[in-house]
Amino acid sequence: MSAPFTTPDQIRRLFAQAMSRMYRTEVPLYGTLVELVERINAQVLADDPALAAQLRRNGERERLDEERHGAIRVGTAEELATLRRLFAVMGMQPVGYYDLSVAGVPVHSTAFRPLTAEALAQNPFRVFTSLLRLELIDDAALRAQAAEILGRRRIFTPQALALIEQAEREGGLSQADAERFVAEALETFRWHGDATVSLPTYHALHDAHRLIADVVSFRGPHINHLTPRTLDIDAAQAGMVDAGIAAKAVIEGPPRRACPILLRQTSFKALEEQVHFPDGQGGEQGRHTARFGEIEQRGLALTPKGRALYDQLLAQAREIEGTGSTGGDYGTRLQAVFASFPDDHATLRQEGLGYYRYQLTDAGHAEPHRVADLPAEVLVASGLATADPIVYEDFLPVSAAGIFQSNLGGEEQRAYAAHANREAFEAALGAKVHDEFALYEGLQAQSLAALRTP
Ligand code: OOG
Ligand code: NI
Fold first, then answer.
1. Binding site membership of 98 for ligand 1 (Cβ less than 6 Å)
2. Taking burial as the number of CB atoms within 10 A of a residue's CB, which of 97, 157, 259, 438 is the most buried?
């Protein structure tokens, strides 16, 4: 008899905790950010008992303290496909397709994350995962050289690969194997300051795009940030500035609102790291910016209709008085433009702009007959049910582009004539990505069905 399996949710929790410990030692400022966010979250919950009750009702209070997302970038289809299998062991599936070439970054991406309400409540760990698009390097010789370098490296330990195969074959891992798996998987994401390419090659890759140098010159896809979730990003941003942290000037995403929607993010500038090149090339001067810090606030998941309105208003804010930029008085413009996005939950629901989770209140439980006959909106209006925002679990391409740009440490912009290529991405991944809207729709429908079967 073999030992019973632990759950993918449990493996994910172990992995997220191990990742957090590793990043804390690699990037000490991360520890500072986590402490800042914990302090702010405790304050917000103490000041707003209604929000605290809402989070508890939806299984969000427990997950909050451990909630993180990370980001990595890989170079080949094989690396991406193996990552998909590695994340599957921890119950993380690819959701969404993000094309960042439109923003001058030669990658396309997905987010690996848990799918169900139960798994998200256990631990919502996500990893924004980008695949380099070598075809966007103009210089054919450099393109071939980059492909050759990437083709030679091995980013997974043999033990990690063996444990992935074992989990696939046997349908899971025992607790002891899960612990070994987490330790081995962690190796893939560790930072190694020794470059695998010569200094001239690094420079050539860097000249093509800093991001290409970041992916191709090192042993593996080092985790480049690990982001805690705050309940008040404006307070966190102010706290970063007070702590002397070089925060990004603009908070990405929607403006501050009474009903937070989607995702707001801010980051601090990437760290300059010392890099060792083979044969001591570059000496003490070897430098690379690989890692940075980010915090985020998550709000209501929007329906396709709500998302279309968000995209339209964001584009408008970035266009007025400028050239698609976030310069000038961007914050004021953003606030003004978003005045036409409804900002109370009843209107957001009635106009079908966001997804909600419905649950009976004590009064609702006491009156099963009334509950059976009334429409959900009436149940909410008469206090028989609550409708709470379903949290947005995904990412935003315009924000991601802003984060990439600021962390590349300059105004680096390339005009790629490329277009989205989801088919090529899914072929590399070896699977289709899940549709985020279908997942939120499913969560809402599940809660509505549960109202009638108390
Ligand atoms: C990923 C940037 C995107 C986010 O939160 O939007 C991202 C990267 O720099 O690799 O993490
Ligand atoms: Ni991020």
1. no
2. 97
